Amino acid sequence: PQARILSSPEASFAMKAEAATAYVLLDAYLWPWAGLIILLFGAASIFITHKIAGPLFAVRRVIARIADGDLTARVKLRRRDELHDLADAMNHMTGKLELIFSVLSDRFSSLSSHARELSPENASVSRSKILVEVEEVEKALEQCKFEKNERRDGH
Hints:
mainly alpha, 4 helices, 0% strand, rod-shaped
């Protein structure tokens, strides 16, 4: 209604002044509230992004350590951070990998010692089979170490 009054040639000066005053008052109330709302949304967006971006950065850092062969790395998040389910799943997976590599290493050591203990006269065929298996495990472990060193060197 104020816009019609201001643009109407028939409206009196007093009516136009009253309409203009209404616009000025609206403007005086509107902009401070709009500014406050913008500030609140800005603060909320910073808070929310930090609750997500911080944990993602921590997960990324731990993934890099795991890729470099450090299976003791774990994701540690603050209590109020998001992505705890992802961090727990990743920590569980890394724990399993650590256990698997530990068992594999123990078995390799055990196979190596048993292969060395076999005497050639009573178990030459078994010994050769064990040695072949040991060499395959050793090659696989060496390949893992080679890939780890390659990633560390940036190739």
